[in-house]
Amino acid sequence: MKLEDLKKIREKMEKETNLREGKGRIKAVVGMGTCGIAAGAREVLSALLDEISKRNLTDIVITQSGCRGLCDREPIVDVYEEGKEMITYGNLTPEKARRIVAEHFVNGNIVKDLLVSSK
Amino acid sequence: MRDLSLHILDIAENSIRAKAKLVQINFYEDKDEMRFEIIDDGFGMDEELLKMVLDPFFTTKDERKKKFGLGLPLLKQNVEQSDGKFKIESKKGAGTKVFFSVNKNHIDALPLGNLEETLWILMTVYDGVDIVFTYEKNGSKVKIDSRELKEIFNGMNLGDPQITGYIKQFIKENLNSIKNQEAL
């Protein structure tokens, strides 16, 4: 795949869909300090990105932060949703991250067994 | 840290926290050796701080309770124990350069790991920074530049669900075109 191929993809997408930046109904923040990376945060982040890409969830933004002082519960994802309390999921794996996308981001149900805290 | 690709992510993450605008990751490979340079234009460090970053019990991350910064010291230790080299240079206000090499034949050498995932994550979820990756082997060279990708997608975030799958595929194919060659 060359840069020209990507250009063609963009042109095709522009014709078929309304290519635009998402509004960000939900923001998911993955802890990517050394502790997080060592515990598997890259794989969790990758699974989240992959899942929202496959489902084309344009209103979800996946981003990162440094270590947030919960190193023993890494990999961690903080979920910020408009008008709701922040939720923290911990001890994640790629499979658990995909569950969060399906159950929480799509269906709107908090995944209780993965919760660290809610404050 | 299980492999080199995770260390590279960790080092680049330090660069980004040092407010780097551009992080260059250069990878050279031959039959016996893998060499890496990670060069940033972030805050940089003075000599005193530079000495401290290799101390396993030092970190700049004040907000945290446990002040352990283990990333670089662990990499240095591992690399040096397996016949490789490790060097870090920095200038306050100018940026930092980390260099390390790995002897592929040493039994304790860390494996490369999933470099494609490291690059994808670096190019998609970190705002305000660009990544230029080069890979040289057997006289061929591959370059992946996040600035070129952003230009194609009119400045869109490369992590956007509509396009990020293509970005991942682009990185993977370009990386594998050279990675899968046997090193001479």
What would you say about this model in short?
Chain A has 119 residues and is an alpha+beta fold.
Question: What report would you give on this structure?
Answer:
The complex is a heterodimer of chains A (119) and B (184). Helices cover 39% and strands 20% of the residues of chain A. Chain A contains four helices and five strands; from the N terminus they run αβααβββαβ. In chain B, a hairpin with a 2-residue loop joins strand 5 and strand 6 (140-145). The interface between A and B is large, with 41 and 43 residues.
Helix content of chain A: 25-40%
Strand content of chain A: 15-25%
The chain-level structural class of chain B is alpha+beta
Global morphology of chain A? globular
Largest interface: A-B, 41 and 43 residues
* pLDDT averaged residue by residue of chain B: 91
Radius of gyration of chain B: 17 Å
Furnish the topology, listing elements before pairings.
The complex is a heterodimer of chains A (119) and B (184).
Chain A (H helix, E strand, L loop, with lengths): L2 H14 L9 E6 L2 H6 L1 H14 L5 E6 L11 E5 L5 E3 L4 H13 L8 E4 L1
Parallel strand pairs in A: 1-2
Antiparallel strand pairs in A: 1-3, 3-4, 4-5
Helix pairs in contact in A: 3-4
Chain B lengths: L3 H14 L4 E8 L3 E8 L6 H7 L17 H11 L3 E7 L3 E9 L11 H10 L5 E8 L2 E6 H7 L11 H16 L5
Parallel strand pairs in B: 1-5
Antiparallel strand pairs in B: 1-2, 2-4, 3-4, 5-6
Defining key terms:
heterodimer, A: 119 residues, alpha+beta, five-stranded mixed sheet, 39% helix, globular, B: 184 residues, six-stranded mixed sheet, 6 helices
